[in-house]
Structures
1.
Amino acid sequence: MIGAGGGARNAARARQRRRQQLPTWSPETTGLDAVPAARRGDFQRYLAASGEKAFVLSEDGARHSFYYARATAADAVEQAMAKCQEGGLRCRPFAINFAAVPAGR
């Protein structure tokens, strides 16, 4: 969970990244509101993580997995999907790097 003052620090970092023309994110572009409430803290940690990354949710929203700092986004998706699908659950990529993945893709 992001501690006190984390929102302000994240906003400042996002402004700095935009000035440097680096990728950034916002709740609107990442689909934060679509993440089940019980998973939002981990989704915020995922967004703050570095490198190539993927966040995966089970279809019922009861389980999730994310990997970051991988060599490629495809590696991150593969590893997050494998972890989420343990026990036979059906999972789908929810976000890759800073982009939300539409359902059904």
2.
Amino acid sequence: MPPPRPAASARALAAGWRGDGVDCQDVDECAEGTASCDQICINEPGSFTCQCREGFQLVRARAGSPPACSDRAPRCGRAPVLSLPAHHQG
């Protein structure tokens, strides 16, 4: 029996990864259904990105809320158009 890996259990993994701290695998948030994407989810190493279908834009209703796809023009000023990773929160 091989000796245990030193301090493997003491290493914290970054969000979006699973494993023992030495051998790590990317979590596919899109396939597992844990991503908060409204229309299109693209898995990336350690994270995921949300995108919208043509004719929609990615907007965030308020700070801290998940992004959503909207086909409506913003009512007041310009809504932020997002094309950024929606990092795993878990």
3.
Amino acid sequence: MRKLTLAEVTALTRAGTRLIRTWRVPTTLAPLILGGPDQPFDAFLKRLTILVDIHACVRRIFIHPRRSFDWLHRPNAVFDGQSPLQLMARGDMASLDRVRGYLEAELGG
């Protein structure tokens, strides 16, 4: 990941915070999705980047915002019966990448 400017870091942090709020992530899951306070700052920024990518994919697949919200909260057989948010709340980067990878594959990427 290239070095981000202060303005880019600020914008990315705001976007991540907004997504957590927009997706109505329960307060118990948000810290798990965003990572703990002991993680390196670069890892935090990578998580935020993945969340923004997930949001962009979901919005391309589901044009109506309500459908994208429902998809994020609904159990999905592809994720072993967990919702995408539950999977992301495992806290590991691989789970975030799994959701993003699934969506990108759905978009043909």
